[in-house]
Amino acid sequence: MTTHKPKIICLMGPTASGKTPLAVELVQRFPLEIISVDSAMVYRGMDIGTAKPDAETLKRAPHRLIDMLDPKEAYSAGQFRADALREINDVLTHGKIPLLVGGTMLYFRVLQQGIADLPKADAKVRADLLERANHEGWEALHHYLASVDPEAAARIKPRDSQRIQRALEVFMLTGKTITSWQQNDTNPLSGYDVVNIALAPQDRARLHQRIEQRFQLMLELGFEQEVRGLHARGDLSPELPSIRSVGYRQMWEYLAGETNFSEMNAKAVAATRQLAKRQITWLRSWPEVTWVDADNENVLEQAARLIER
C-alpha cells in the first residue's frame, strides 16, 4: 500500500528577488499558507528595512513567524526550527500546504539538513562574552574558540561576532563543542515531500539594480525614521542580532555620527549585494532545487507548474 508524504514548498532566493510578491500570488491560486523564513522579519517595529509585507498584503496572504519578538531579544536557528516545525504541522492539520518563503539560508538548512538540539541562549553567558569582546576584541575570542573547537573556528570568520559568540556560549554552557553537537544531527523534514524553488534573476547586474532600487524605495518610505525610533529607545545596540541586520547596521552607524548619509547609502547597498552573493552561493550547493528566473514575465506560471507537479 502506497503512503503519500505531506507536501512542503520552499520558495528561496536572494534578497530583492521578488519572493514575497510571487508567494502572495501563489497563495491566491493554491491551498497554501505562508511561513516566513527570515531572521529579521521576526522583529516587531522593523518593517521598512526588512521589506515586511504591509497590512493589505497580509490580509491577502497571512504570514506566520513575523512580528514575534522585540528587537532586544535574540533568536536562534534552533528556535526557528522548533517554531517552523510547529507551524508546518498546524498548517497541514488545517488541510493546507506550507509555503516556506524567505532568504535566511541557515534557517532552510536547519529544516532540511538538520541542526543539533543546541541549548537555548543564555543572557548572562552572552553578556560575559560581549564584555570580554569589548576588552579583548572578537579576533581574540576567535583565537580562544580555535583552542577549544578548531573545526568551528575554521568555519567561522574572525570577525563574525554572532557565530563566535554562539559557539563559545554552547561550549561554556555544556562543556561540549558546537562541532560535537552538530555531528549528532538529524533531518527534521525527512518524513515530508519537499519542493525547493530558487527565485533569482539570471543576470547578476539586474539583481544589483533591484537591490539599489529597493533600498532607495525604503528610504523614501521612511527607513531612516524607523531606525531613529529604534535608536531613540536607548536599550538597543549594534551588538544585537536585530541591529546587525543588513541596512539597519549601516543606518545605525549614520545615526551615531560614524558616517555621513552618502556613505551610509553606499555601504548599505554594498552589504546587501554581499548578502545576495552569499545567498546564491548557498543555493548553488543546495540539493534538488529548481531555479526560476525572477525577471521572466512568466515567472508566476513557471512556479505554478512546479507546484502542480
**Shape summary:** globular
Strand order of the largest sheet: 3-2-4-1-5-6
- What is the count of β-strands? 6
Oligomer: single chain
Key descriptive features of the protein:
309 residues; alpha/beta; Rossmann fold; Histone, subunit A; 2 domains; six-stranded parallel beta sheet; 53% helix; globular
What does this structure look like?
The chain has 309 residues and is an alpha/beta fold. It has 2 domains: 7-115 and 186-308, Rossmann fold (3-Layer(aba) Sandwich), CATH 3.40.50; 123-183, Histone, subunit A. The chain is 53% helix and 10% strand. The protein has 14 helices and 6 strands. A 6-stranded parallel beta sheet has the order 3-2-4-1-5-6, with helices on both faces. Strand 2, helix 2 and strand 3 form a beta-alpha-beta unit. The mean pLDDT is 93.
Helix and strand arrangement:
Layout: E1 7-12, H1 19-29, E2 32-37, H2 55-60, E3 63-64, H3 77-93, E4 97-102, H4 105-112, H5 123-136, H6 138-148, H7 150-155, H8 161-174, H9 178-183, E5 193-200, H10 204-221, H11 223-233, H12 248-255, H13 261-284, E6 290-293, H14 299-308
Parallel strand pairs: 1-4, 1-5, 2-3, 2-4, 5-6
Offer a concise description of the structure.
This protein has helices at residues 19-29, 55-60, 77-93, 105-112, 123-136, 138-148, 150-155, 161-174, 178-183, 204-221, 223-233, 248-255, 261-284, 299-308; strands spanning 7-12, 32-37, 63-64, 97-102, 193-200, 290-293. The chain is of the alpha/beta class and 309 residues long.
